[in-house]
């Protein structure tokens, strides 16, 4: 069955980025003691079929409204659950960027050498 002819969606987000000879240090890789913006600014995307959009127009409107907001890995579980229509009592709407009540995280954290470091990466 062609995914475009079904109610379907794909959610993707990586757990980290990579430095690939980015200025000014031209460092490459990840996991070094120096965190670069490229390592912590990771993409997330959602693809959905036209039938998914018709069936879930409110979620699609919210995704589009929130697409330029900052996210955290903490948002993945709640967003994916909502996109997949999985309901559970502990659902927190403000953590799903598919929800009209989504709130950007006030703080995001990176883990370096197994120590959590608070950092503001804009």
Gyration radius, to the nearest Å?
Answer: 17 Å
Widest β-sheet, arrangement of strands: 1-4
**SS-based class:** alpha+beta
The N- and C-terminal alpha carbons lie at a distance of 41 Å
Quickly count the helices. Answer: 4
* Helical percentage: 10-25%
Mean pLDDT figure: 81
Amount of beta strand: 15-25%
Q: Could you characterize what this model shows?
A:
- This protein is of the alpha+beta class.
- Helix content is 25%, strand content 22%.
- It has helices at 37-40, 50-55, 57-66, 74-83; strands at residues 9-13, 19-22, 27-29, 44-48, 108-112, 115-119.
- It has a two-stranded antiparallel sheet. Strands 2-3 form a two-stranded antiparallel ribbon. Strands 5-6 form a two-stranded antiparallel sheet.
- Strand 2 (19-22) and strand 3 form a beta hairpin.
- The longest helix is centred in the middle third of the chain and has 10 residues, at 57-66.
- The protein is globular.
Provide a short characterization of the protein structure:
With 122 residues, the protein is of the alpha+beta class.
Secondary structure layout:
Elements: E1 9-13, E2 19-22, E3 27-29, H1 37-40, E4 44-48, H2 50-55, H3 57-66, H4 74-83, E5 108-112, E6 115-119
Antiparallel strand pairs: 1-4, 2-3, 5-6
Key attributes of the depicted protein:
two-stranded antiparallel sheet, alpha+beta, 22% strand, globular
């Amino acid at each position: 069955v062609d995914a475009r002819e079904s109610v379907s969606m794909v959610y993707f987000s990586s757990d980290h980025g990579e430095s690939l000879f980015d200025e000014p240090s031209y460092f490459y890789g990840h996991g070094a003691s120096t965190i670069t913006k490229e390592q912590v600014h990771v993409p997330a995307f959602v693809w959905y079929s036209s039938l998914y959009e018709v069936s879930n127009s409110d979620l699609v409107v919210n995704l589009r409204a929130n697409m330029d907001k900052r996210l955290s890995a903490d948002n993945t579980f709640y967003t994916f659950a909502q996109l997949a229509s999985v309901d559970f009592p502990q659902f927190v709407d403000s953590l799903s960027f598919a929800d009209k009540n989504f709130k950007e995280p006030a703080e995001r954290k990176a883990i370096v050498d197994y120590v959590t470091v608070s950092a503001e990466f804009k």
